[in-house]
Amino acid sequence: MSEGQVVKACIDWLCLHNCLIIRNNSGAFKTSYTRKDGGISEYMVRTGKKGSGDIVFCSPYGRYGEVECKYGSNKQQPEQIQRQKDVEQRGGLYILAYSTDALELRKAEILSPLHRP
To answer: What are the C-alpha distances in Å from 111 to residues 16, 27, 36, 83, 102?
Structure first.
């Protein structure tokens, strides 16, 4: 199994439980363009928010969450740990998943109705 397969399995699990999902790719790449003077300029394009989860979801009851998928001995990076704290401080769910077992363990939280004042 690879990290990509963990992501796919978690997406399938969330969809099976009627969650809205976004596959949240984040990273950067270098590209170039030809200027009017014929020269070439390069620049970086960044996608997503550094540290954000691989999957962003909204439960059927409006619960916001992010799933950070890992495989093998991969660990959270400092930006991901900070993102987890930020999401949880705001009442969202942040799930570190090495498999769908992590989602199953938090199924009640994911699928429970929100208690609104």
So the answer is: 12, 30, 55, 22, 14
- Tokens 């704290």 belong to 85
Q: What is the pLDDT of residues 11-63, one digit of tens each?
A: 999 999 999 999 998 888 999 999 999 999 999 998 888 899 999 999 999 99
The pair phi, psi for residue 8, each rounded to 5°, is -60, -45
b/e code 23-61 from CB counts within 10 Å (16+ = b): ebeeeeeeeeeeeeeeeeeeeeeeeeeebbbbbbbebee
pTM for the predicted model, two decimal places = 0.84
